[in-house]
Amino acid sequence: MTDTATDVITELTAWLEQSWDPDLTVGEWWERLGLSGWAAPMLPENAYGRGLQRADGVRVQQTIAEFGALGAPGGLGLLLAAPTIATHGTQSQIDLYVRDIVTGQKAWCQLFSEPSAGSDLAGLNTRAVKDGDQWIVNGQKVWTSSGHVADLGMLLARTNSDVPKHQGITYFAFDMRQPGVDVRPLKEMTGRALFNEVFVTDAITTDDAAIGGLNNGWAVANTTLGFERAGLGAGGGSEAAGAATPGTIAGDLERRAGDFVGSGAGGGGRRRGGGGSLAGLFGLASSMLADLAKANGKIEDPVIRQDLMRLYTLNEIAKFTNLRQRALKAVGQDVPGGPNIAKLTMSRVLRLSRDLGLRIIGPLGTLHAYNPQDRKVLDAATGNPFAGIVTEVALFSPGPSIYGGTDEIQRNIIGERVLGLPKEPSDDRTKAFKDLPKNG
Fold this sequence. Notes:
The structure is a single chain. The protein folds into 3 domains: 3-105 and 228-266, Butyryl-Coa Dehydrogenase, subunit A, domain 1 (Orthogonal Bundle), CATH 1.10.540.10; 108-220, Butyryl-CoA Dehydrogenase, subunit A, domain 2 (Beta Barrel); 277-405, Up-down Bundle (Butyryl-CoA Dehydrogenase, subunit A, domain 3). The strands form 2 sheets. Strands 2-3-7-6 form a 4-stranded antiparallel sheet, with no helix packed on it. It has helices at 3-19, 26-36, 54-67, 76-88, 91-102, 217-232, 286-295, 302-330, 338-361, 372-382, 386-396, 407-418, and strands at 108-111, 127-131, 134-141, 152-158, 169-175, 181-186, 195-206. By secondary structure, it is α+β, with helices and mostly antiparallel strands. The longest helix has 29 residues, at 302-330. It contains 12 helices and 7 strands. α8 runs antiparallel to α9 (338-361).
């Protein structure tokens, strides 16, 4: 750890000793945490952060968890909306939106994907039509994570169809709780409903909610996607967000902050994981799978041993790639295509942990429970609570290769923007969007 990192952790620990109180409400605690700059320390100082590098930001959140305090508000607000608005927004937008994100007052979702556009995000058809100082929005979005508990959304809408498709998009902050917004859950084969489809009919947004300016949404969206790919990619570490859910919909803001952590240090104890078996959806740790293989008598299988080492090696390479990226950024350089490589690596890690986990648990891999009550019954019947984590990872494994930009999109970006390979022939960057052929 560098001297700077040590100083940061020393300052944070002293602040926690003075400020953490498990009897505060979640909203009160997040207000303290957010306004102090410790909720999102990687944000710039004018955006309620401390301007720290990612490595130090991860250490901050790990220190909060180890101290026994409730961690920062989780979700797409802190991961995507806040850094995007800090990059492209005005100071008034930062004060309006980012403040409520870092203090957990508002939860956000991402209104990007559409059923008619597929992987061609710039081909979106949701429209915003000017009406005085308002915009009337109509369209449909899909794969909207946490849309059912979101107060606001990062909305991409077409505001000009007379220019090429990448040029006529605007990025709006969008009220999810207004008339005309219908959020419907999409149940997955895991039994959960992490995603939603959203139908928008004559809903409203405003000029001052346009982040980055009118018709500049493609550039702003790429910033969001960059943060998303870096956050979802392998080797990026974890910021250990709090177990409580931010925003006005989930109902956690008025609950006692100490109820979301266990007993122990700091008067509140270690943070209690809020995801249950969902914690394994970004891949199973090689150490956990090794323990499972020992318990199931599979650790002497040479193929399983080889794949355990392959999984460990992939994760270590991802960590060192991330460290290399940080070191280069510190001197004003970059790893070309770094977030895309990290995203592809995560997909590969998840597929390998899926296949390895199913081989280790054997026939138990054919059993899966689809609701909390049945999970308890299955755990009791099999005597192996880890089997449910393995099967959930297996069922969820196609997801990361799709969301945040498919693996094919990541390879295209690396090929075209990093390696300089020729793009596929297309006139979609010169022809007006209204003149392009449409699906369906």
